[in-house]
Specification:
- The strands form 6 sheets. A 7-stranded mixed β-barrel has the order 21-22-23-24-27-26-25, surrounded by 4 helices.
- The chain is globular.
- α7 links the parallel β10 and β11.
- The chain is α/β, with parallel strands linked by helices and 650 residues long.
- The chain folds into 3 domains: 260 residues, Aconitase, domain 3 (2-Layer Sandwich), CATH 3.30.499.10; 145 residues, Aconitase, domain 3, CATH 3.30.499; 184 residues, Alpha-Beta Barrel (Aconitase, domain 4).
- Bound molecules: alpha-methylisocitric acid and iron/sulfur cluster.
- The site of alpha-methylisocitric acid (MIC) has 13 residues, from α2.
């Protein structure tokens, strides 16, 4: 039978289960990536597994998120990461070398392979024909230990691109259009596979922008074919030998086909506070802008930054605008420095941040109260910028550059200048001196563990019955940024007790004290949520910190993929409301009992929630694979591994 490209690559890596959409399958992972904010915990977990050396073809640890370093914590993490990488066979991309996804695409990604990364934007690798999936740090640690990665065999949706992008419209507008069609929820278990003649008109960095931000739809990943454009990109990166041609069969059958004519697209924006709220730039034009931030793993390729530099050449930043640039990689910024484009940007009045996530994660450049900030990044969740009252609009580099000049949201087609077409250079500057290879003599490596490095906390087996209190009831679309903020709080990623104090800080600052009190009284904490709970990042701390606080179950109307896996890995049971009315009726502070939860999960029987405050009871759902049940019954993945090891020894 004719196959999609997704099927071809997944089947080539299948080690468990049968390829059939909806089934649980296990795949072999060829490459892993971690970044510092999730990586420190992932390597602590990897160490706890007692494996001597990573078993993947290639594993890379990037330092790109926590680079502001106020206080000793981040520097301690970086030092630990450098030691642990050298010791266990991992490459280390040092702070200053760039953002994980961009550097991985430039220097490591290979068509036809699998990549698992402890960051939700790992699908950027789909731009090069790689099945690249975001996951929690523990799942990445397992992949480094040679274990398969388990996922639901996806439904494959074809996005058929025709036509060609018009001047001042770029790849960001394509993915914003995709978000307008698919939204941010209801796409769990799908892969977006791009094809059609329009693909040939897009370079690899443009495809990577589209694949990167597909994460906002909640899909498993996005995938482009590997063709002559891919070969060209790898050639200019000095890696043509890594190229291979990959395409779906011409008569492959997809679960759905969506057509997008690139010629018809116009500049778009995601309006506050969700990447799924799409408007045309025309609809927003004239709005005063206070800040423009260009960069992030979505939009800081050579093409993107050159388009900005050429548009702004000879112009000055508008007096009411603060203009920030955080380049995505050392390679790109060095190219711009050598060809003079960086000088043009500096002459404009740009404020240069280092080659890192920077403003995107809210640990710098928080805008003013009530700001209108135009950003080329991928997420505009409430308060992610560090300023709760700020309004963040996600736009293309072209639209961002236009606002730098005019101080207002402006359709870049109205600038009255000719569109700078940027050609892929014949060669990129290749200098991997900021990527440290693993040690030749791993035994001699001393791993430094500063006071910020704690041990990964262990969860407990799920009890016979849950008896607790609804500590918090939240609405639809709660992202991991709502559950546990990043930004200035992110420096506590390796210190779970300290980080837990910020749980639900944006939504309800009283959560921590209430949860402590409930835990202290010997009762369980229970979270109640609406649709699409756990959107956004892969941060396992959104499960790890609740676990530490004694949360035993989350009852939601629906969950997103990575967060569900993280909850299970840390022994928290994800349950779903069967009736909308049950969600509507339940209140914060209600006492709940879930009798026989352990037994029911084991035997697959109906699970009843008794609301003893309201005197009601109803059935809730749980969609758990055999493997997920095993993990939960053991009390989380680390306990399961430990139990298995004890059994093997005896
Ligand atoms: C993000 O963009 O939200 C992050 C910060 O990169 C996260 C990872 C993290 O929280 O460390 C992600 O996308 O997974
Ligand atoms: Fe970094 Fe932002 Fe990309 Fe996350 S989305 S990896 S914070 S640049």
């Amino acid at each position: 039978m004719a196959k999609t490209l997704t099927q071809k690559i997944l089947e080539g890596h299948l080690v468990a289960g049968e390829y059939e959409p909806g089934n649980e399958i296990g795949i072999r992972i060829d490459q892993t990536l971690t970044q510092d904010a999730t990586g420190t915990m992932a390597y602590l977990q990897f160490e706890a597994m007692g494996v001597n050396k990573v078993k993947t073809d290639n594993s890379v640890s990037f330092i790109d998120h926590n680079t502001v370093q106020i206080g000793f914590e981040n520097a301690d993490d970086h030092r630990y990461l450098q030691g642990v990488a050298a010791r266990y066979g991992v490459y280390l991309s040092r702070a200053g070398n760039g953002i994980c996804h961009q550097v991985h695409l430039e220097r490591f990604g290979r068509p036809g392979t699998t990549l698992l990364g402890s960051d939700s934007h790992t699908p950027t690798g789909g731009g090069i024909g790689q099945i690249a999936i975001g996951a929690g740090g523990l799942d990445v640690a397992l992949a480094m230990a040679g274990e398969p990665f388990f996922l639901t065999c996806p439904k494959v949706i074809r996005i058929n691109l025709t036509g060609r992008l018009q001047p001042w419209v770029s790849a960001k507008d394509v993915i914003l259009k995709v978000l307008a069609i698919f939204g941010t929820k209801g796409n769990v278990g799908c892969v977006l596979e791009y094809g059609g003649p329009g693909v040939l008109t897009l370079t690899v960095p443009e495809r990577a922008t589209i694949a990167n931000m597909g994460a906002e739809c909640g899909v498993t990943t996005s995938l482009f074919p590997s063709d002559e454009e891919t070969r060209k990109f790898l050639r200019v990166q000095g890696r043509e030998a890594n190229w291979k041609e990959l395409a779906p069969d011409t008569d492959a059958v997809y679960s759905r086909v969506v057509d997008i004519n690139l010629s018809e697209l116009v500049p778009l924006a995601a309006t506050p506070h969700s990447p799924g709220n799409i408007a045309t730039v025309r609809e927003l034009e004239g709005m005063k802008v206070t800040q423009v931030c260009i960069g992030s793993c979505t939009n800081s390729s050579y093409r993107d930054l050159m388009v900005v530099a050429k548009t702004l050449k000879g112009k000055k930043v508008h007096p009411n605008v603060s203009f920030i640039l955080a380049p995505g990689s050392k390679q790109v910024v060095e190219m711009l420095a050598r060809n003079g484009a960086l000088a043009d940007l500096i002459a404009t009045g740009v404020r240069l941040e280092e080659n890192a996530c920077g403003f995107c994660i809210g640990n710098s450049q928080s805008p003013q109260t009530d700001a209108v900030s135009l950003r080329t990044s991928n997420r505009n969740f409430l308060a992610r910028s560090g300023t709760k009252s700020a309004n963040i609009y996600l736009v293309s580099p072209e639209t961002a550059a236009a606002a730098v000049i005019t101080g207002r949201i402006t359709d870049p087609r109205d600038l009255g200048i000719s569109y700078p077409e940027i050609e892929m250079p014949d060669a990129f500057i290749i200098d991997d001196s900021m990527i440290l290879p693993p040690a030749d003599d791993p035994g001699s490596v001393d791993i430094c563990r500063g006071p910020n490095i704690g041990a990964p906390p262990e969860s407990e087996p799920i009890p016979e019955r849950v008896a607790g209190v609804v500590t918090i009831k939240v609405v639809d679309n709660i992202t991991t940024d709502h559950i546990i903020p990043a930004g200035a709080r992110m420096k506590y990623r390796s210190n779970i007790p300290a980080y837990s104090e910020f749980l639900f800080e944006i939504v309800d600052p009283g959560f921590y004290n209430r949860a402590m009190e409930i835990k202290g009284s010997g009762r369980d904490n229970i979270i109640v949520a609406g649709l699409s709970y756990g959107q956004g990042s892969s941060r396992e701390h959104a499960a790890l910190c609740p676990m530490f606080m004694g949360v035993k179950a989350v009852i939601a109307r629906s969950f997103e993929r990575i967060h569900t896996a993280n909850l299970i890995n840390f022994g928290i049971v994800p349950l779903t409301f069967k009736n909308e009315g049950d969600y509507d009726a339940i209140q914060e502070g209600d006492s709940l009992e879930i009798p026989g939860i352990r037994e029911r999960i084991g035997d697959g029987g109906a699970l009843i929630v008794m609301n003893t405050t309201q005197g009601t009871e109803y059935e809730v759902g749980y969609d758990l694979s055999g493997r997920a049940k095993e993990i939960l019954l053991a009390g989380g993945m680390l306990s399961l591994i430990r139990n298995k090891r004890v059994q093997e020894k005896s």
